[in-house]
Amino acid sequence: MPESFGNVHVESLMSGTPAVIARVGAQRLSIPDSLVRKIDPGRTEDAAQHVAQIVHSSERTSTDLRHFLINEYSLKRMLKGYEEAVLQCDLQAPATFSPRRTLRLDGEIRIPPWAAVLDSGYYHDYSGYCADTHFLSILPRISDGVSVRDLIEGDGVHLDKIQRWVDSGLIAVGLV
């Protein structure tokens, strides 16, 4: 299971040691793909190729990447971010547990932050690659943003199936 924001790759790169990063959790977005080597989860042959290239060329962290890391992950910037998160948050009523959220027809279906459409498939950080062929067949519609009603009426998806996808965390639903 991925860390919500592991710093190992940042620490490695800051010390000059290259890293091959899997597109899971926060690592999907923490560093632009153009600055670092990334692979889709489970692609061990791709990882091995990257490592071989790094070793063969004696690669070190690039100047552009080091500048990005210094700007984005400096101690001063990190502390400022924590300070803002703690001191500028809005107090809200305590959250209540709801075992199952009732779907509304006007609810907008979207890809949750713990999942991503990758070249190698639809990846869920906690359950791996999705093998549900029906879900994968309508994934382009979900990626573009679609309401529960549109999936039912336009694509013939049953409400109970949408509910199962929500319950399993494959999709999230908000209001349009």
Give the tags.
flat; 176 residues; 2 domains; alpha+beta; three-stranded antiparallel sheet; 8 strands
Summarize the model shown.
With 176 residues, the chain is an alpha+beta fold. Helix content is 42%, strand content 15%.
Secondary structure: elements and pairs:
Blueprint: H1 8-14, E1 20-22, E2 37-39, H2 44-57, H3 63-73, H4 75-87, E3 107-110, E4 115-118, E5 121-124, E6 128-129, H5 133-144, E7 146-147, H6 148-155, H7 159-167, E8 172-175
Parallel strand pairs: 1-2
Antiparallel strand pairs: 3-7, 3-8, 4-5, 5-6
Protein name: Glycosyl transferase family 1 domain-containing protein
Organism: Mycobacterium deserti
Descriptive account of the structure:
By secondary structure, this protein is an alpha+beta fold. It has two domains: 8-87, no CATH class; 107-175. Helix content is 42%, strand content 15%. The chain contains seven helices and eight strands. It has helices at residues 8-14, 44-57, 63-73, 75-87, 133-144, 148-155, 159-167, and strands at 20-22, 37-39, 107-110, 115-118, 121-124, 128-129, 146-147, 172-175. A three-stranded antiparallel beta sheet has the order 7-3-8. Strands 4-5-6 form a three-stranded antiparallel beta sheet, with no helix packed on it. Strands 1-2 form a two-stranded parallel ribbon. The protein is flat, with a radius of gyration of 20 Å. The two termini are 31 Å apart. The mean pLDDT is 89.
